[in-house]
Every structure is written in structure tokens, then in C-alpha cells.
Design brief:
The protein contains nine helices and 25 strands. Helices cover about 20% and strands about 25% of the residues. By secondary structure, the chain is an alpha/beta fold.
């Protein structure tokens, strides 16, 4: 686990398969009706192509598509239908509730089908899909989230929309005209870098021969810390000197990666002071979620990576004598991740599936049960592990489950060709490499071959290393 590296070397998203450029068949998951309380009344709700509700995220170039289905908590006894429509007031309401300022995606760039009712036949619990098409006018600011606000209304049948399900926001990132790291088949490589020692620009040195795209799709800066200020009685994010140097020099160290289409994620890790990801009370979670949003806003970050280690809960027992804390549990972490998703639904929540947060339970909000797959975008396994995470994060697609994570620093875990082939054959499309650094002694005989295997198995391509090795050049 990453603990061995600490002192040595640190709404949600639709996959690329939802974009028009994807050639794979899209398999739509069934609706998770366990998200809702069991009642006598018939409750309806929309889900997108990954089974998510309330929020959808799309990155697209030139054009994109998103499909919706109507679901009910029990089989209907008569035909039911809902209508969907672009409604700017839905975004106004959201911005007012959340003190946010998201802008509208132009209505004229959204193509609805001629029939905007989604119909559910009697005796069924899920409808056929209704599909929206998005196009780019080339004038929207890249890497800036715009929102398509949808209003949902029941038009026929004895059905009531579940609470909070009368609107759905689609967060759109129009990346037309800028380079991308997407290789077209949905696979994503997460480069989690111990930046106390390593320059993140090293990700620029590894590309695919056929198209020149970067091997890695996501950079995780490992790691900032969650800490408790006892004097001010607040939980806050503490960046060490190395993290802060990279953030302060964003244009030098991070923008070149973003310009090539990589996402930049900030790691969050406890720091031995009794506070952590699993012991914050609900109001503390809400306040810390705003701290997370402020940090991501300030440094143009694309989300957070949560790793639950080093909290030292048993040395402090904050929940016994400190307001705002609760007894450590996975449920408390669920609440935190949920509040972060509410605060910034356009950004990713990535969970390191390890220790207490290997599995996150559902959240109950306004009487509605929301499974963790709705607010955790990616779950990345500990090194060498490959168990399916459907039970851990219900509703998360297999493509977003990270298997056989590799640890490049201590020469302990490198995914084999068989491991990677198993992922391809079973539909798992996320893989993490930790502490990649071409300046380290094992680069030629372990790190480079490991990345060559990834290029070969995931992309049927050849890895190109341009020979450039970026040193750590900040204090």
C-alpha cells in the first residue's frame, strides 16, 4: 500500500463510450432501485447511460450524446410517461442553493428528439432510452463546465417523481480544438505521483506511436493532507512545500499536462492528527467540501483522490470530546464524498479502495437512498488487487474500477501482461501506476517494460519514450 511510500517517495462522469467517436457497443446498466426507500406509492426517476441520476458529466469534442431512461421503484400497472425539457430556471435554482455560478450550455446546441416524452410500458420498471445530441459551436471556453439543465415532469400514469428528481443537470466540457489524451477505447491510466521527489512533467515523455497521445490520462498529485486546526476548530487542507510549489507554478508544471488533455487530481490524505476522511460529522463534511471546492477552483484542479491512511484516530478519539466529529466509519466517509460531489458535481471523486473505505455505503438524503456509485466516479484498488467493486460502490460501471494497480518505486507490484489482458477481457478499463519516475534506478528494467505492456495490451500500440527525464527542480 501507499503507506510504504510516504517517507520514501504520495453529475460523476460518463465514459468515452458515451461519445459519438466511440466505436464500442454501449451496455447500459440496469437501474438501481435500491437508491430509493420502499413506499406504497410508485416513484419514478431518470438515469443516464451509467445508471446515474440528478447529475451527468460529459467531456466531448465536436459532438456527443447522452441517453436517459425512466425507472420506477416497482413494476407499473399502467403506462407512465415523463417529459424532459431544457429549463434555465433549474440551473438558477441549483446555483442559488449551492452558491455556485455555473453557466448555461447554449440551448440551441442541444438536439432533443421529436418526441420528448419517455414512456414506460405497464408491467415494466425501466423504459427504452431517449437520446440527446450535443454539438459544439467552437466558441465555448475549453475545460470550463457548462450546464444543460433539464426539467422532468410526469405527463401520464399514477407515478410520482422521487424527491429531488424533477431536475437533472448535465455538466458539459466542450474540448473541441484542444489536444486530448483519450485513446478512443475507454481505457484510462492514472499516474499517481509521489511529488516529494518527482516532477509531474515526466508524464509528457511517454506517448503512443500510432497517434502521439500521452500514455497517461490522469495525474494524481500525492498528496495534500486533511488536518484539524484546534485553535480555529476547523478542518482544512494542508499542502506540503512540494505540493504547494507545483500549484503555485501551475503554468510550468501542470498546464502543459492539461494542454495535452490530462486531468489533474489532488490527493487527500490524513496526517496523524486524529482527523481524517472517516470521522467528520455531517456539518463538518459540508464545510470541508467547500474547502475542497475552493482549492480546486483556485488551482484549476479536476477533482480529488481520497486515501484513508495515517489518521491515528485511536490516539485522539476526537468524537468523544470535539464538536463536529463522529466515530470513524465508512458511512462518515460516504457523507464527505457525497457532500464534495454536491459542491462540485463537474469534478471527479476518486477513492483508493483500501482499508476503511474499501467499500462505501449509501447515503440517505431527503428520504432518498443514494448508492455510493452515484458520487464516487472511480474506485482504484490497492496494489495487485483485482476484485470486482460492484458491491463496494454500487452503481459504478466496471470501466471505472481500477484493477491491478502497480507500484513503481519499491519494485514490488507490476501488472503482468496476463493481468492487463484479464482486464481487457472482462471490461475493466482503469489502471493506476504509482510513483513513476524515469530518474529512478529501476526505470529501464521495470518501469519502462511495465508501461510498454500497458500500451500493447490496452491500446494495441507501441510505447514511445522520447528520452527526456525531468528532474525535480523546485525547493
Amino acid at each position: 500500500t501507499m503507506k510504504y511510500m510516504k517517507h520514501i517517495v504520495t453529475t460523476f462522469i460518463l465514459s468515452g463510450c458515451m461519445l459519438a467517436a466511440c466505436s464500442e457497443e454501449v451496455v447500459l446498466p440496469g437501474a438501481d432501485e435500491s437508491q430509493y426507500e420502499t413506499r406504497n406509492e410508485l416513484l419514478g426517476y431518470l438515469t443516464d447511460g451509467q445508471g446515474k441520476h440528478q447529475f451527468t458529466n460529459i467531456d466531448f469534442r465536436s459532438s456527443g450524446e447522452v441517453a436517459f431512461r425512466l425507472n420506477t421503484t416497482q413494476a407499473t400497472t399502467s403506462d407512465c410517461a415523463v417529459s424532459i425539457a431544457y429549463d434555465a430556471t433549474a440551473l438558477e435554482e441549483y446555483n442559488a442553493r449551492n452558491n455556485s455560478s455555473y453557466e448555461l450550455f447554449p440551448e440551441n446546441l442541444v438536439a432533443f428528439p421529436e418526441e420528448t416524452n419517455i414512456r414506460l410500458e405497464a408491467g415494466k420498471k425501466q423504459s427504452e432510452a431517449l437520446q440527446l445530441t450535443l454539438t459544439s459551436n467552437g466558441q465555448l471556453t475549453p475545460n470550463t463546465p457548462y450546464v444543460i439543465p433539464l426539467r422532468i415532469k410526469v405527463t401520464s400514469g399514477h407515478m410520482t417523481l422521487a424527491q429531488g428528481e424533477d431536475t437533472h443537470l448535465i455538466f458539459v466540457n466542450d474540448q473541441t480544438g484542444i489536444p486530448d489524451a483519450d485513446k478512443g477505447n475507454g481505457f484510462k491510466v492514472f499516474s499517481c505521483m509521489e511529488v516529494n521527489d518527482t516532477n509531474p512533467l515526466n508524464n509528457l515523455s511517454f506517448t503512443l506511436k500510432s497517434n502521439g497521445k500521452l500514455l497517461t490520462d490522469v495525474l494524481i498529485l500525492f498528496s495534500a493532507n486533511i488536518r484539524y486546526d484546534r485553535e480555529k476548530q476547523r478542518v482544512y487542507i494542508k499542502n506540503n512545500n512540494n505540493i504547494q510549489a507545483l500549484l503555485d507554478n501551475h503554468d510550468k508544471y501542470l498546464k502543459p499536462l492539461k494542454d495535452r488533455g490530462m486531468k489533474i487530481i489532488l490527493g487527500l490524505l490524513p496526517d496523524h492528527d486524529g482527523s481524517g476522511l472517516c470521522n467528520l460529522g455531517t456539518e463538518t463534511c459540508k464545510a470541508f467540501a467547500q474547502e475542497v471546492k475552493a482549492m480546486c477552483d483556485a488551482y484549476d484542479l479536476d477533482g480529488i483522490f481520497l486515501d484513508e491512511e495515517y489518521a491515528d484516530y485511536d490516539n485522539y478519539y476526537l468524537y468523544l470530546n470535539t464538536p463536529g466529529f463522529v466515530q470513524p466509519s465508512a458511512a462518515a466517509c460516504s457523507r464527505l464524498v457525497y457532500e464534495v460531489k454536491k459542491a462540485q458535481p463537474d469534478r471527479w471523486n476518486i477513492v483508493y479502495a483500501y482499508s476503511t473505505i474499501y467499500s462505501l455505503p449509501s447515503i440517505v438524503e431527503d428520504g432518498v437512498v443514494i448508492s455510493s456509485g452515484n458520487f464516487v466516479d472511480y474506485g482504484l484498488h490497492d496494489y495487485g488487487q483485482a476484485a470486482d467493486l460492484s458491491y463496494s460502490f454500487p452503481g459504478m460501471p466496471k470501466s471505472n474500477m481500477g484493477m491491478y494497480s502497480s507500484e513503481f518505486a519499491n519494485s514490488r507490484y507490476f501488472a503482468s501482461e496476463n493481468n492487463l489482458t484479464w482486464m481487457v477481457e472482462n471490461g475493466y478499463k482503469s489502471h493506476m501506476i504509482f510513483a513513476m519516475d524515469p530518474n529512478r534506478g529501476n526505470f529501464d528494467y521495470q518501469q519502462l517494460p511495465a508501461m510498454q505492456r500497458i500500451a500493447k495490451v490496452f491500446y494495441n500500440d507501441e510505447l514511445v519514450f522520447d528520452g527526456k527525464k525531468y528532474p525535480k527542480d523546485w525547493e
